[in-house]
Amino acid sequence: MTIIRLAVLFVALPMLASAQDGVRSAQATAAGLPAAVVKRIQSSPDRAEEAVVMLIAGSGTGGAISQAQIETAVSLRLADARASVLSRLMAADLDNDGTVVAGELDALAAASGARSRGWLAVAAAQADRNGDSTLDAGELRQFAASEADGEVPGREIATMRGVMRFDVDGDGRVTLAEYRAVAEAVAALPAPAADKKGS
C-alpha cells in the first residue's frame, strides 16, 4: 500500500509543480500588464472576456489564436470598414461604370435623408482629390481607406493585438484558459492609480 502511495505521489508531484508554475506565470503576466489593461479588466471583466472570446472564436483555430491570426482579424476589421464606406458611395454608381460623377451623387442625395445628403456632400468633396467632379476607382479606394482608419479606433486595434500578452506558456498562441488565468490574477491586483493631469 505504501508503494502505491509513493508511486501516486511521484506521478502527482510533477503535475502539481507544473500547475503551480502556471499560476506563477499567470501572476507574473498579470503584474506585467499595462495599467490601462489592468483597469479595463478590473472595471469590466465580463466585457473584456467577451472581446477575447469573440476574437479567439472568430479568428483563431483549435481554441487558440496566434499573432498572425490576430493580424488577419485586424485586416478584416479594416476591410469591413472600407467596404462600408465604398458601398455608400457606390450606391451612386447608377451606370455601373466603377466611377461616380456629380450627377449620380445628386440623384442619390435627392433620394436620401438629410443626414445621408450631408455625408455624401462631405465625402464627395474629400474623395475628389483632383477636383474633376468624378470619383474614380483610385480616389474611392483612398477615401475608403482613410475613412476606415478613422472609423476603427487605434485603441480597438491595439486591444486586439494586445491579446498576445496573455500567452502564459510562450507557445505563440493564446487560449481562453490562459486569458482567464491572467484575468483572475489581475482581479487580485490593486487598482491602478488614477491618471494625474496638470500635476
Oligomeric description of these chains: single chain
Q: How does the major sheet shape up?
A: 2 strands, antiparallel
State the end-to-end distance.
69 Å
Give the overall silhouette.
elongated
Number of strands: 4
Rg on CA atoms, Å: 26 Å
Neighbour order of strands in the largest sheet: 1-4
Topology:
Layout: H1 2-31, H2 35-43, H3 45-59, E1 64-66, H4 67-90, E2 100-101, H5 102-110, H6 114-127, E3 134-135, H7 137-151, H8 154-162, E4 173-175, H9 176-187
Helix pairs in contact: 1-9, 2-3, 3-9, 4-7, 5-6
Task: Please summarize what this structure is.
69% of the residues lie in helices and 5% in strands.
Would you mind describing this structure in some detail?
- The protein is mostly helical and 199 residues long.
- It has 9 helices and 4 strands, in the order H-H-H-E-H-E-H-H-E-H-H-E-H.
- It has helices spanning 2-31, 35-43, 45-59, 67-90, 102-110, 114-127, 137-151, 154-162, 176-187, and strands at 64-66, 100-101, 134-135, 173-175.
- The strands form 2 sheets. A two-stranded antiparallel ribbon has the order 1-4.
- Helix 2 (35-43) packs across helix 3 (45-59).
- Residues 1-22 have low confidence and may be disordered.
